[in-house]
Design goal:
This protein is α+β, with helices and mostly antiparallel strands. Strands 5, 6, 7, 8, 9, 10, 13, 14, 15 and 16 form a ten-stranded mixed β-sheet that branches. It has a four-stranded antiparallel β-sheet with strand order 2-3-1-4, with helices on one face. It has a two-stranded antiparallel ribbon with strand order 11-12. Helix 1 packs antiparallel against helix 2 and helix 3 packs antiparallel against helix 5. It binds 1,3-dihydroxyacetonephosphate (2 copies) and magnesium ion (2 copies). The site of one 1,3-dihydroxyacetonephosphate has 3 residues, from loops.
C-alpha cells in the first residue's frame, strides 16, 4: 500500500515569549483536524517542540497534495485566531502569506514529506527542532548514513553496503530549488565539503542505493528567504525511515550525542549546542538552547502505533548535561566571534541599520 507521510510545523503563538504553545492552542489544532480531516487523511498526530506545533499526517494523496497542505494551513489559521484571542506572543508568527495558493511550501510552515510502499513493519522517526535551522541535521545525517564509526550497519548489513544517495539543496538560491545529488561512499569528500556549511547547503533527502527507497526527508524552509527579513528561526522537521535497508533507530540517534553547535540560539542570531529533549519540551535559557525531539512510530495501513519518545531515556540525561555545559561555555563570550552568527545571517535584522549609520561615520585616513 502506497502511503504518504507529511510533517508540517509552524509557530502560531506561544506563552511567555518564544517558549511553548498553550494546551488550549494545541487542542484547538487537534480539534480542527478531527473535524475537517475525515475522508482526506488516514491518521494524525499533533505535538509541540518549543514554540512550534507539528502535525504529522498519513494519507494516500502523494506529496505536495493541495488539499492536505490546505488542511494544515487552515488548522494553523484556526489556531492563530485562538492564539490572538488568548493574547499569545507572536500569534501567527510563521504564517507569512495572507492567502493559501496551492502549496504550503514557501508560506512559512516547515514541511517534510515522503511517499513509499508500506513495509510489513514500517518503523520511522519524526524529528522536530526549535531555535535552529534545517542545516542542523546535516552532521547527524552525514554520520548515520555514511560513517561506519557511527553506523556499523554500513559494514554489517548486506542491504546497506551499496550506500546512500544524498540530495542536497543550496538554500541561498531563492528563485528556484537548486539541488545536487551525490553518492556515498564514492562522493564522501564532496558531501562533506557541502554539509560543512549548514547555513547554505542542507540535506533535503536521502535514498537507499540498494533498493532506491526514500530514507530521509527534511524541511528546507528558510524563513528569511520568504519574508526578506528576520521573522523567527526555521525550526526544521525531519522524517527518517529506519531498519532493514536503512540504518537502525539507534544508528540514527547516535550522532545526536555530539550536541553539535548550530545556529539559532537567542533571536535566531547565536550559536548553541543542539540538545536532544523529550517530546513536548519547552524552551528556557537564553531562548534556547536549540532543541531537537524525536518520536518513533510504526504504521500499519497508514495508522500510527502509539508514539515512543526516543530521547526520553536515562542515557540522554547525561547528554543533556553535556549540552548544558557547552551552552554555558559558549555563552561566556557573549556577542563575541563564533558565539554570534556572522553578518550574512543577521543581515535581515536591525544590525543592518546600525552598520549603515556607522559606515557613514568611518573616515579614510589620508
Ligand atoms: P521582540 O523584539 O518582538 O521582543 O522579539 C525578540 C525575539 O525574541 C526575536 O524574535
Ligand atoms: P522562534 O523562531 O522559535 O519563534 O524563535 C524566535 C527567537 O528569536 C527567540 O529568541
Ligand atoms: Mg516564536
Ligand atoms: Mg520556534
Amino acid at each position: 500500500m502506497k502511503i504518504t507521510l507529511s510533517a508540517i510545523k509552524a509557530d502560531i503563538g506561544s506563552v511567555g515569549g518564544h517558549i511553548q504553545p498553550t494546551k488550549s492552542l494545541v487542542d484547538r489544532v487537534k480539534q480542527f483536524l478531527a473535524e475537517n480531516s475525515p475522508g482526506l487523511l488516514i491518521d494524525t498526530q499533533v505535538s509541540y517542540t518549543g514554540d512550534d506545533i507539528a502535525i504529522l499526517f498519513t494519507h494516500d494523496k502523494g506529496v505536495s497534495n493541495e488539499q492536505v497542505h490546505k488542511l494544515a494551513w487552515d488548522a494553523f489559521v484556526a489556531g492563530t485566531e485562538l492564539a490572538k484571542a488568548e493574547g499569545l506572543y507572536g500569534a501567527g508568527q510563521d504564517l507569512l502569506k495572507d492567502a493559501f495558493s496551492g502549496t504550503i511550501k514557501g508560506m512559512g510552515p516547515a514541511v517534510a514529506e515522503m511517499e513509499f510502499d508500506e513495509r510489513p513493519g514500517e518503523p520511522f522517526l519524526f524529528f522536530a527542532a526549535d531555535k535552529t535551522d534545517p542545516g542542523a541535521y546535516n552532521l547527524p545525517l552525514y554520520l548515520a548514513f555514511t560513517d561506519p564509526m557511527y553506523c556499523p550497519g554500513l559494514i554489517l548489513s548486506p542491504k546497506m553496503t551499496a550506500g546512500f544517495r544524498f540530495t542536497i539543496m543550496d538554500v541561498s538560491c531563492t528563485d528556484a530549488d537548486r539541488v545536487i545529488q551525490l553518492n556515498a561512499p564514492e562522493d564522501l569528500y564532496d558531501i562533506a565539503a557541502l554539509l560543512r556549511d549548514p547555513e547554505r547547503f542542507v540535506v533535503e533527502s536521502i535514498h537507499s542505493r540498494s533498493d532506491n527507497e526514500i530514507a530521509v526527508s527534511v524541511s528546507t524552509t528558510r524563513l528569511h528567504n520568504i519574508a526578506g527579513k528576520y521573522v523567527g528561526k526555521d525550526d526544521p522537521v525531519m522524517l527518517v525511515r529506519v531498519q532493514s535497508s536503512f540504518p537502525a533507530t539507534g544508528e540514527v540517534l547516535g550522532p545526536f550525542c555530539i550536541t553539535p553547535l548550530v545556529a539559532g540560539f537567542m533571536r535566531g542570531s547565536h550559536t548553541g549546542p543542539l540538545m536532544p529533549v523529550k517530546r513536548n519540551s519547552p524552551i528556557s535559557y537564553f531562548d534556547g538552547p536549540p532543541i531537537v525531539s524525536c518520536t518513533a512510530y510504526c504504521i500499519r495501513n497508514g495508522k500510527f502505533t502509539e508514539p515512543s519518545d526516543a530521547f526520553d531515556h536515562p542515557f540522554w540525561d547525561e547528554i543533556r548535561r553535556q549540552a548544558t555545559r557547552k551552552a554555558l561555555n559558549i555563552r561566556r563570550q557573549g556577542f563575541f566571534g563564533a558565539a554570534m552568527l556572522p553578518y550574512s545571517e543577521l543581515e535581515y535584522g536591525g544590525i543592518v541599520d546600525k552598520m549603515k549609520s556607522l559606515d557613514e561615520r568611518f573616515v579614510v585616513r589620508k
